[in-house]
Amino acid sequence: MAPQNETPSTAGWGLIAGNGKFPFLVLEGARSRGIEMAVIAIREEASPELERVALRLHWVSLGELSRTIELLHKEGVKQAVMAGQVKHNKIFSAIRPDWKLAKLLLSLPKKNTDSLIGAVAALLEDEGIHLVDSTTFLAPLLPEPGVLTRRRPDEAESADIAYGREVARRLAEIDLGQTVVICDRACVAVEAMEGTDETIERAARLTEGKRLVVVKVSKPGQDMRFDVPVVGLRTIEVMKRSKATALAVDAGRTLLFDREKLMAAADEAGIAIEALTPLGVKQASDRVTAEKGKR
Fold it and tell me: At 244, which helix (H) or strand (E)?
């Protein structure tokens, strides 16, 4: 895969599209580099608006893995991006798998999302289709470490963030969820299959108006090809309604959709957003210091 500051080959690119804005942003980013992608859109998830913006589009149902591979070959795809959420509950309850997917599901040692999508990625590799980093065309949407809003977290919010990151990290290690909601150093809600926004809303119902802090982390060894943490405008709207006053995310591993509008909305709502170096990942300055100490 070409580095993000270089122009990759413009031929043989495909997009496997789930829901939300992610697929549209990937298409836009690819076109800015002269790449026109063939799109395989998941019927149960992807927006019909893709038909308006994609020049080559095919619809498949969630369980049609064989047809997906056939279409990718037909379109000459050698490199593919997987973008857009597929709701976890649909993956394991709503699909009717074809024979290839059924065989793959039976082979999984664990029935979680990472195992399934990782197995699909391995199968695509066997078919000569390389699944690449889903943020390849979206570098500006990945925040550097630091406070991103006008207001920085206050002392109480920072304490909640520190506690929440430790809790969220443990959850992410077992692929349970990547978001926790904290209130006065107590974990109020943990994300499972419902997603970030519903987790925040559940926390608000439980705390009845108390101030909340939201912490969203990446998984240890986050595979950037799929299931990358995402924050969008709707999350800020939900936080405002839920009296969640601060948000912490992992720097370099979290996509901030509509970034300028998102920050403006957060500033207007008085929400502090901070991007932090993922736990277990040393900052560049720490690595330099460590290397000097070895000499």
Answer: strand 244-250
pLDDT digits (tens, 9 = 90+) for 63-94: 899 999 999 999 999 999 999 887 665 555 65
What is the 3-class SS of 85-139, one letter each residue?
Answer: ECCHHHHHHCCCCCHHHHHHHHHCCCCCHHHHHHHHHHHHHHCCCEECCCCCCCH
Q: Specify the amino acid at residue 180.
A: V
Q: What is the pTM of this model?
A: 0.82
CB atoms within 10 A of CB 6: 8
pLDDT in tens, 117-135: 888 899 999 999 999 999 9
What are the boundaries of each domain within the chain?
A: 13-131, 142-284
Q: In 3-state terms, the chain is what percent helix, strand and coil (to 5)?
A: 40, 20, 40
User: Tokens at residue 43, please?
Assistant: 């019927």
Name the superfamily (CATH) of residues 142-284.
LpxI C-terminal catalytic domain (3.40.140.80)
Sign (positive or negative) of CA dihedral 216, 218, 219, 224: positive
Number of helical (H) and strand (E) elements in the chain, helices listed first:
11, 13
| Neighbour tally for 75: CB within 10 Å | 18
CATH class of domain segment(s) 13-131 = alpha beta
Q: What is the Cα–Cα distance from 15 to 237, expressed in whole angstroms? A: 29
Structure token digits, residue 168: 């969220």
